[in-house]
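User: I'm curious whether this sequence folds into something compact or stays loose and floppy. Could you predict its structure so I can see for myself?
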Amino acid sequence: MADVLDIRQFRPLTETALMSLAVAVCYYAAGRLGLMGRLVVEGVVVTPIWPPTGVAVAALLLLGARVWPGIALGSFLVIASLTAPGPTTVVTVASNTVAPLCAFLLLRRAGFRRDMARLRDGLSLVFLGGFGAMLISATAGVGLQVAKGSLDKSEFWPAWLAWWVGDTMGVLLVAPLLLVLAGPAGRFRVRRWKEAAFLGLTTLVLVPVAVLSPMSILFLVFPLLIWAALRFQLAGSMLCALFASVLTTFEATSGRGAFLHLTDVEIMVKLQAFNGSAALTALLLASVITEQRATRRSVRRACQELAEVLEHLAAGDPSPGPPGTLESRGAPPGGHRDP
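Assistant: Here's the prediction. I'll summarize afterward.
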């Protein structure tokens, strides 16, 4: 019996350790993918989209604060893959862990729902989880570079802005998609699958044309985002926005297409303006559409219940009450029951 109790006591610890290890692996893989599209701004290597922040915030929302060691371990592995760990690594790992934790706590305090079926959920993720919490990692990361002397004080703000926007884009583009994929899958009719396939093919053709063209026609992506948000809500709009942002980032790092003949700072500004606009359009519009559809379903359900009540009243029957009441258990028309 004592052995059984010991096993039950250690089972939660084992589950937490395994989940933290899985989060660390996902964080490291996302970090390696993010480093493929890095830019150099004022001598500092930054990434226009830093997917690990989105992975970290989504993991905390799905699994709870107990998996924070996995975030710290994943951050350490990413840093160790770039340079030899040193005393400053502790500060970087701490800031990369504290920022998603603050985002998680702020979102929980604001009553954030993982299905993001309300506009307030989208706004909370943008302003609390993205813009607000990521101030910590950007300030600590760039401030550390200034304290080490590897970055001049006059270069602080350009590097800080690039770092902050990259972390924020990771939250706005990656976290919603992971939350949607982790939720219950909806059912699509055959007609919806055909429309989804047509939208996917259109995206695969139109987005490269908009990005690769030197005429700067990136605005052609936004009708696709609106179409995806109106018809497929978060799942469609965030996939479309992520694909467009990733492809645009790779072209920007190569200095081709819409980013031809631009300086590093101009590339960063133009790229972040596009990524931010795409993420906000996809996220907020999809949240509005989802909330409106949920409201419409609630109104339709209330109308059906009211119609049933009116039918019973017209027939002279007692209106059906909620389960467990006297009416629902077949009370006589006079309303009295035999003792």
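Summary: Residues 264-314 form the longest helix (51 residues). Confidence is low (pLDDT under 50) at residues 324-339.
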